[in-house]
Amino acid sequence: MMTPLVNVPLIGMPGVWEWVLIGLAIVLFFGASKLPKLGKGLGEGIRNFKKGLKGEAEGETLPKKVDEEEGSRGSD
Predict the structure, then answer these.
(1) Using CA atoms in the order 35, 40, 45, 48, what is the torsion angle rounded to 10 degrees?
(2) Domain ranges of the chain
(3) What pLDDT was estimated at residue 11?
(4) In sequence order, what DSSP letters do the residues of 4-56 get, joined into one string?
(5) Cβ contacts of 27-35, under 8 Å, gap ≥ 24
(6) pTM here?
């Protein structure tokens, strides 16, 4: 009698050869010359996302409020 397969994962973590194939597919898809640009863009995107979560956007200043009276005086 066969024992039932319990808690056997159908898909496991990729092995070494699977990672090699994935890497080759990425190189063939994007090309070797664009990979550094993609890495740089991805790194900048992650960095900007983290800054956004902290509220540290570049040049983050609140605009000055201009009163209506001051704005109309400057046009005279």
Answers:
(1) 180
(2) 19-53
(3) 76
(4) P--S--SS----HHHHHHHHHHHHHHH-TTTHHHHHHHHHHHHHHHHHHHHT-
(5) none
(6) 0.42
